[in-house]
Amino acid sequence: AELYSYTEEPEFGTNRRCFEEELQRQARGRRWAQLGDAQQRGLVMRLLDGLDAAGREQRLRAARALLYLAQGTFGDCEDEGDVLRWSRHNCFLLYQMGTFSALLELLNMEMDNSQACSSALRKPAVSLADSTELRVLLSVIYLMVENIRVEQEPEPPAWTSCRETFHKELSFPGQTEEPFALLLLTMVTKFCSGHAPHFPMKKVLLLLWKVLLVGPPSRNVFGGEWCLDCGRTAGCLHCPMWGCPPLPRAALPFLPQLPLPLQPLVKQDSLDIYNERDPFKNDEAGADEEESDEVDGGIEGELDLMEREAVIPAVPAQRPPMEKVSFPKGLPWAPKVRQKDIEHFLEASRNKFIGFTLGQDTETLIGLPRPIHESVKTLKQHKYISISDVQIKNEEELEKCPMSLGEEEVQETPCEVLYRAMLYNLPQYMIALLKILLAAAPTSKAKTDSINILADVLPEEMPITVLQSMKLGMDVNRHKEIIVKSISAVLLLLLKHLKLNHIYQFEYVSQHLVFANCIPLILKFFNQNIMAYITAKNSISVLDYPYCTVHDLPELTAESLEAGDNNQFCWRNLFSCINLLRILNKLTKWKHSRTMMLVVFKSAPILKRALKVKQAMMQLYILKLLKIQTKYLGRQWRKSNMKTMSAIYQKVRHRMNDDWAYGNDIDARPWDFQAEECTLRANIEAFNSRRYDKPQDSEFAPVDNCLQSVLGQQLELPEDFHYSYELWLEREVFSQPIRWEELLHYQ
C-alpha cells in the first residue's frame, strides 16, 4: 500500500483500461483468469513487444498493462486475498517471460532522458505528471521484487528455481553490468544533485530497501541468515556455523516478549518483563535539570496525557488466554568479556601485586593471589570473540607480511560485489541519503535551498476544497513518513551486511555517515514530540491498496479523515524510530570520540524523553545509548537519574568488569579523540588500497631478468614509428657513449 500515493489512485483505472484494450484484441471477450498458460504467455509477449515500440505513448500503454498484471488483475477479483494471489502468480509469470530485463533497459533509458530532465528543471513546480514513465516502471519492478523474494508455502518448484535465478541476477550482474542496487543509488545522487528533480524518490528508496532484503537463505548477506542454535544472525564466532560452542541461551535478552509486526500484542508498558514497577511512569518533569530546560510545558503536558493510555493495544477479550512465559531468575542476559578486558584486568593486578606488567600475556599468573586466578578463570569462561576481532587481526598480519602471506582470497558474496561497485562514490551516496532524510524529517523547517521530495505526490492541479486539502496534507505527511522508513531501513541493512562481510567496510560507511553529520541529524529527528509521531494517523485505510481496487469507495468527509484508522499507534513510525536508534548504536559502539558527540549535542534529555514510548525494543536501544555515555555525564546527572540508571542495569547487557556507571574505565579518559578517528581512517584506507587498488607497476611485482624473454616481448609501437626509426637509433643509441668501465664496478 505504501508504494502508491493517494494522488495516484485514478491511475489504477488507467492501468486497467490499457490492459483490457489489449486483452480484447487478443482474447476476444475472455478474462485473464480464463486464459490458458500458453495464451497468457502469448499476451505477455505482445506487451513486451510494445515496450520496444518507438512511440513513447505506445511504450507507456504497454508498461501500464504490465503494471495492471503485477497489481493482480483486480478487475476480475472479488476480495483482497484474490488480488494478492493473482499478483504473486502474475509476477512470477512476468519474470519467466524476461520482463525484468526489458524493464531494466527502459529504466536506464528513462534515467538518461535529458529532455525530461530539462523539462522538469524549467518548471517552477514538479508534479506527478513529470515522472509518469518512471513511476510505472519502478512500480512493476517493485511488485516483482517483493512477490518473488518472499517465500510462501506451498508453491510450485518452478517458482523456487525462479527465485534463485532472480537472486543471482540482482546480486551477481554480468561483467559489463552493475548491481541493481547501485543503479538505484545513482538515481538518488542524481536527484540530490538537482539534475533530475522529477525522479520519484519514494518509489526508488522503497525499491532499494527491498532489493537489499533479497537474499537466498543459504547466504549471510542480502537477506541475512538466522541461526536457530544461537538465535541471531550469523555474526559471531560462537555461532555453530563457525564451529564454536554457542553462548548460553540466557545471552539472548527479551526473545519471548519482543513483538512481531502486524500481530495483536498484550499490553506492554515497557521493558518490564519481571513484573517490576515501570521506572518511567509518573516521572516528574522537573527531576532532570537538563530536561526541564529543553522541554516546554505544552509538550510535557501532552506527554503526560498520552502516558495514561497504553500505546500498544491489548488483546481482545474473546481471544484464548496466552500461556504465561516463565523467565529465569537473575539478569536476563549473560555477560561478555573481550580479550582487551582480560589484558586490562591483568595489567592492573600485576602493577598492584608484582610491580611490573607482561604486556598481552594472559596465561602467566605467577605471583598473583588465588582470588585473581579465579577472576581470570571466570573472565575467560565468558570471553567473546567477534568476527570483527578476527578480521582486524587478519588485516594486521596481512599488512605486516604481504609477501609471505600472499594475496588474500576474497569470497565473492553479493555484499562484496556491491561494496566494490559503490566504493569510489560511497561518500556521495551517504550524503544523498542523509539529505533526503533531513528533508523528510518532521522537525525540518522548509528552506529555499532544500531538495523537493514531493515531486511524486503533488498533483498537477492543486486542491480547491477544504476536503481535498486535508487529503493532500495527509498524503504529504504519509509520503515523508514512508521516505524516513525506507532510508532508515536501507542504512541499517547496509551497516549490518557490511559489518558481517568485513569490519573495515562497515567502518568506512560509518565514518562517512559521521562526517556527513548523521549523529546530530538523528538526534534532531528525536528532538520532537515523539509520542505524537508514534501515534500519528496519516493513513486513509479505504484508499490503501488492495482495498481500494475491489471495494466501492465511500464518500470521504472531514470527520472520517480526522478519525484515520483504528490503530492507536503507527507501526511505520515506530519501525523508523527503532531503526534510527539502532543506526546510532552501531555508529557509536566502542567509539569514544563519537560517544562524546552524543554528550556534546545533549542527547541525554532527548533520549530520556523518548523513553516515554512504552515499547520494549525501542526502550532497549535508548537505554543502550544512555549507558555508553553515562560515564561522561558526571556525578550530578547520575544522582538525579537513578531510575534510568536502575533500568540500564536491569535491561542492558554489560561486560563483566564494565565500569560504565562511575567513569573509571581506562578507555574513558580524555585522550585525543581525533587521533582515534585518524588511526581508524588510516586502517580503512590501507584495507581499501590493498584489496581494491590493483596498480600495474607494483613494487612487489616480479622482475624479468632474462635477456631473451625481454627482447622477445611484443611491444605496441605507434604507427609512424618506422618513419623516424633511424633518427631514434641515432639519438638514443649511437650518440650515447658506452661506459665500459662501469661494468667493473658490478663484478
Question: Which key features would you list for this structure?
Answer:
747 residues, mainly alpha, two-stranded antiparallel ribbon, STRP2 protein, globular, 55% helix, 1% strand, single chain, 34 helices
Give an overview in words.
This protein is an all-alpha fold and 747 residues long. Among the domains are: 8-178 and 191-214, no CATH class; 339-382, no CATH class; 704-744, no CATH class. Helix content is 55%, strand content 1%. Strands 1-2 form a two-stranded antiparallel sheet. Strand 1 and strand 2 (232-233) form a beta hairpin. Helix 10 (201-213) packs parallel to helix 19 (466-501). The model is unreliable at 217-221 and 224-319 (pLDDT under 50).
List the helices and strands and how they pair.
Layout: H1 10-27, H2 37-51, H3 56-70, H4 80-96, H5 99-111, H6 114-122, H7 132-149, H8 157-171, H9 180-192, H10 201-213, E1 226-227, E2 232-233, H11 289-294, H12 297-307, H13 339-353, H14 370-381, H15 387-400, H16 402-405, H17 414-422, H18 426-440, H19 466-501, H20 503-515, H21 518-526, H22 530-534, H23 547-550, H24 558-563, H25 571-588, H26 592-600, H27 603-610, H28 616-629, H29 635-640, H30 642-651, H31 673-692, H32 707-711, H33 725-734, H34 742-745
Antiparallel strand pairs: 1-2
